[in-house]
Design a protein that fits this description.
Elements (H helix, E strand, L loop, with lengths): L7 E10 L2 E10 L2 E7 L2 E8 L4 H11 L9 E6 L10 E6 L23 H9 L14 H12 L3 H6 L3 E7 L4 E7 L2 H14 L8 E5 L5 H10 L3 E4 L5 H10 L2 E7 L2 E6 L10
Helix pairs in contact: 1-5, 5-6, 6-7
């Protein structure tokens, strides 16, 4: 699959290997700012890899609690491109939303750098009254173990650059529905959720979210906002992520590699007979 336009940049580098030096062309993942505006007012600027920008903005609006359903998004478009053919602004028009840009409190918390205590972080999410994840969802352990390798075969930009995160949507049978990549792990999730929102698939109550990095607090809250019952990652979750998942009923799986994984909350969705 061909990477989105402007998502990869070429550069000359020097390579040292076994005592020999070579000059060669290398590929870099592009990193540029994207400004998201709502009804003409700037809401946020995020550093992202260009591509699927409308999905990124739509996913951001949902996972940050600005909208709750597709019907509230009247229109979404990119601003006119500049002389280089790029556009780093997305405009969204909303309806039936009580939203003031100045009142937006970003929820991109990292457990190691959150400016307020974990209890307050969780309280912010609890107050959004998110729909509880589907308790009847199940996926077989063997199927779950297959997902990382399937995702790895579809990380097209990562294959070129080695420098991107990925988020993927799987069904309970292990079929890959969609995958998105970005230099920011939260942006990759927003692109994936935004795709699902624009396709009318939200809430994602019968699907698994797999991320290529760790399962941090910001990823857990985005998974809950999108309705996922299970979040899996190839690395470890943070303590705050696990606390939030346990309180709100999300299954969190970490260290999903080979024939092994660790379940931190709500194990019954992926380990038969557990509580």
């Amino acid at each position: 699959m061909r990477p989105p336009a402007h998502s990869v940049e070429l550069t000359q580098v020097m390579e040292w290997r076994n005592g020999a030096v070579h000059s060669l062309q290398d590929s870099l993942a592009t990193e540029e700012p994207l400004e998201i505006r709502v009804d003409g007012a700037p809401v946020t600027v995020t550093m992202r890899t260009p591509g699927h920008d409308l999905e990124l903005a739509a996913g951001f609006l949902l996972t940050e609690g600005i909208i709750e359903q597709r019907e509230q998004l009247v229109a979404i478009s990119t601003a006119a491109p500049d002389s280089s053919g790029k556009s780093n602004v997305v405009e969204a028009q909303l309806k039936d939303c009580e939203f003031e840009p100045k009142d937006l409190q970003r929820n991109f918390f990292a457990a190691s750098s959150c400016g307020i205590c974990g209890k307050s972080c969780i309280e912010l999410i609890r107050n959004r009254r998110l729909r509880p994840p589907d308790r009847d969802f199940r996926i077989a352990p063997k199927v779950l173990c297959m997902l990382p390798e399937v995702l790895r075969t579809r990380q097209d930009i990562f294959d070129l650059t080695g420098g991107l995160h990925a988020a993927a949507l799987f069904d309970a049978e292990g079929s890959l529905i969609a995958v998105r990549e970005d230099i920011g792990r939260h942006n990759a999730v927003d692109k994936l959720v935004g795709w699902a929102l624009l396709e009318g698939r939200v809430p994602l109550s019968r699907y698994v979210l797999l991320v290529s990095g760790r399962g941090g607090f910001e990823i857990v809250q985005k998974a809950l906002a999108a309705g996922f019952p299970l979040l899996a990652s190839v690395s470890a979750p943070s303590s705050l992520a696990v606390k939030l998942a346990r309180e709100l009923g999300l299954t969190v799986v970490g260290f999903l590699r080979g024939e092994r994984f660790v379940v931190y909350s709500e194990a019954s969705r992926c380990i038969p007979g557990s509580i």
